Amino acid sequence: MSKKKWHRSLSLLMLAFVLLLSACSGTTTTDEGSEGNENSKESRKPIKVGVLASMTGPLEAYGKQSIQGFELGLDYATDGTREVNGQKIEFIVEDTETKPEVAIQKATKLLEEDEVDFLVGSSSSGDTLAVLPLAEEYEKIMVVEPAVADSITGSEFNKYIFRTARNSSQDAVAGAAAIADKGVKIATFAPDSSFGQDGIAAFKEAALDLGAEIVHEEYADPAATDFTSNIQKIIEAKPDYLFVVWAGANSPWNQISDMKVQEKGIKISTGAPDIAALSTMNALVGMEGFTVYYHDLPQNDINKWLVEEHKKRFDGTVPDLFTPGGMSAAIAIVEAIKKTEGNTDAETLIEAMEGMSFETPKGKMTFRAEDHQALQSLYAIRLEKKDGVDYPVPVLIRELTPEETAPPIRNK
Predict the structure, then answer these.
(1) For residue 14, how many other CB atoms are within 10 A of its CB?
(2) Residue ranges making up the domain that contains 193
């Protein structure tokens, strides 16, 4: 072979080798690029939130308020996009019917069939307590709203539970501050449920610390509509105050008025409820107590946005007792997703959410690291008549700060 032919053959061989390397390199780049695109697509999968609420049953109004608030909260926290870090946030609502066994079924469906990343709920403490073990079993964060039983972040607590709702002890601190003092005799009245039992236990602890005496405790069937015998027992105990813990449409206020409890020298105190229940409390004008929320009490930009937007979307109506709680739950989830950059692994979220502060319609909330209870403001109020309003309006006496209402840590 001539030297020229030999060089040409060598050049062709080298060129073929270079092309082979390029081809291999190109294949590798394509594969890596394809894998990168696949991961990118995976990261853009929507984040799913399963919301448990009483859309029927005695707490139907609370469920609907929470859902409206949650929807508004997602829009507020994402500037209307319902998207964080390129990921859409979707939510699926399931009706617990205010029945724990139904709540378990619906939560299981959300976790197994819908494969949600978060649970939120529910309106009933009984429903919520039934679902807590599922959050732990499936290792999913559950944001509790609006259920208040102390045991949720106390004896039944697990690390996957975070609560934006206030708990019974926070209510109790606020309620006791309004009426309890040395030598004051107090009777209590509540439904015979985890909500009622926990609420009264917490109130007793706070009231006794302030020197008051609990002279009678009365519990009624949560579904009752006739409270005559319960109220008569309270009258016979001759307290200075009757402190009532109640939730639901079957409230005792009309019968307390009909049986002239106040005319017998017994002052009434309670947490001011939602607007529908306030409409039955005209006989209690002048009462001092506390409230979780009334739409013109918090003075901040988020609450102003909430009130204005609620009026736009819901026929001119104002947000009610549990609307801001639903909004706060949504804001908390969005803030957590921002902190983890879209990572919904439970351990990563727990690390991000413990001690996390976030702004809400009620001001700043903070998830206490020890028990994941959100510390928050409550409001000492007096019920007063207001022109143009057909129910007693909660008027602010003073805002009770998150530090003042911080409840005992009960999950040890």
Answers:
(1) 10
(2) 169-291
Find the angle CA(20)-CA(21)-CA(24) to the nearest 5 degrees.
85
What are the structure tokens assigned to 198, written together? Answer: 């926990």
CA dist., res. 158 & res. 134, Å (int): 10
Going through 110-234 in order, the beta strands assigned E by DSSP cover 118-120, 141-144, 161-163, 185-191, 213-220
Beta-carbon-side half-sphere exposure of residue 194 (alpha carbons within 13 Å): 19
DSSP β-bridge partners for residue 48:
90
Contact between 67 and 93 under an 8 Å Cβ cutoff? The reply is yes
- Left, alpha or beta for 86 (phi > 0: left; psi -120 to 50: alpha)? left
Q: What is the CATH number of the domain that holds 138?
A: 3.40.50.2300
Averaged over 122-144, what is the pLDDT?
A: 97
What's at 83, amino acid-wise? E
Q: Which residues of 262-274 are buried (b: 16+ CB within 10 A; e: fewer)?
A: beeebbbbbbbbb
Are 305 and 252 in the same domain? Answer: no
Write out pLDDT tens, residues 252-286.
998 998 999 999 999 999 999 999 989 988 888 99
286 and 177 inside one domain: yes
CA distance 381 to 389: 17
Tell me whether residue 23 is in a domain: no
Closest CA to 64 of 300, 259, 326: 326
* 342-389: pLDDT as tens digits: 999 999 999 999 999 999 999 999 999 999 999 999 999 999 999 999
Show contacts of 299-306: CB within 8 Å, 24+ apart.
300/359, 300/361, 300/363, 302/76, 302/359, 302/360, 302/361, 303/361, 303/362, 305/76, 306/69, 306/72, 306/76, 306/361
What residue spans of 238-291 are helical by DSSP H?
Answer: 253-258, 275-278
DSSP state of 362: T
Number of domains in the chain: 2
Boundary residue ending a domain (247, 272, 291): 291
Q: Where are the alpha helices (DSSP H) in 262-340?
A: 275-278, 301-313, 323-340
pTM of the complete model: 0.82
Paired tokens of 36: 């990168």
C-alpha span between 267 and 395 (Å, rounded): 18
